């Protein structure tokens, strides 16, 4: 019998069991995102009386799912594992495989993976997104892989959630584009280096800031070290990339007023690799950034796009209109919104 049918029957016969299950799941989830957290803060966050929370904390402690420390409550390893298993079960309970098929059909993509929830509202969903993307990346890494990865918080999460892997021959990791205007931990260079460490691979870096003028870019491209990396980028055969809302990405990259005005005027909805797209996937503007080209993007054998949250729906739709030769990893909120477009 399917998991969702079992839950449906259980909810009819012993609804208090399902309610208790969901209450404890919410407690574990809040602890995961805010640990260490005090009981009082937990009570306020979840709208549960302190007395009830004390009882639940004691039960979870007995089950070895949490530790109670002076700084507050934290998940144990068992607690982390159980929370992950519960969240994973929602894939079946919510029949997300059907949602994946509908989204794959609408966007004409190679493959779609959807995680439960809304990453913009729940940090656990964001981590789950990173974990799912990391699993797909590891499956695709083979001998002779040149792996490129872009920057951003989502890509940093993918690498953070990735398990270690060794024994791959002739592997190289590269930042898919330059860009030194962001915080260090979410720059493509930093993420590429962290990824290389996880999979025991050599890596190269691309030290070129965003938003240089053409003359400055020309000088840097003639530098032998930089030119060597740019040539390697053309050899990328496994790409992991983020994409975003045009306005948000332009603001994050400190774009000038002319760029921001054009985004509004032309109703641009998406940004990826320094290019801006309208809702039909037409390229309308390019910033002076260096790295992977759109021609490269279309030709790469295995590309994985990772983006989540309802606000990314139009951006995902636009990029898929430009190129549908990639695997999409997203969340339930974005998926359902895309189906409405």
Automatic annotation (TrEMBL):
Family: Belongs to the SorC transcriptional regulatory family.
Lineage of source species: Bacteria, Bacillati, Bacillota, Tissierellia, Sedimentibacter
Keyword Hydrolase: no
Name of the protein: Central glycolytic genes regulator
Keyword entries, A-Z: DNA-binding, Transcription, Transcription regulation
Segment forming the signal sequence: none
All residue ranges annotated as the CggR N-terminal DNA binding domain in the record: 22-87
Any one GO molecular-function label of the UniProt entry: DNA binding
